[in-house]
Amino acid sequence: MKIAFMGSHGVGKTTLCFDVAARLKRLDMAVDLVKEVARSCPLPINKDTTLEAQAWILHTQISEELAATSRYEVVVCDRSVLDNYAYLVHQSGRQPEYDGLVQAWM
Predict the structure, then answer these.
(1) Which long-range contacts (CB under 8 A, 24 or more apart) does 91-98 make?
(2) Strand, helix or coil at 60?
(3) Exposed/middle/buried for 85, CB within 10 Å: 0-12, 13-18, 19+?
């Protein structure tokens, strides 16, 4: 099972992710938390972001989710691939080469 949280900055996604993961662990479920990958992006983000930075974030999110789902029963994601793609589209416009990837992943 994968649970992903989406939303604007500062609305409590991270706090909620940790709370949900902790509650599931108390039910003896094997849980992993995929933290917001944008925070570790080596490229410019926010106002100075680029298509390359947003692509890095999108691909890293998928990679982190793949690794977590291979080892854990439940994966809680602080943001999602769809959320990451929305930021990419906002910055750089639709990228048809990513549409199918995001749709298939979701």
Answers:
(1) 91/49, 91/50, 91/51, 91/54, 92/50, 92/51, 92/54, 95/51, 98/55, 98/58
(2) helix
(3) buried
Question: pTM here?
Answer: 0.90
Q: What is the pLDDT along the chain (106 residues), one digit of tens a residue?
A: 999 999 888 999 999 999 999 999 999 999 999 999 999 999 999 888 999 999 999 999 999 999 999 999 999 999 999 989 998 999 899 999 999 999 999 8
Where does residue 15 rank: exposed (0-12), middle (13-18), buried (19+ CB within 10 A)? exposed
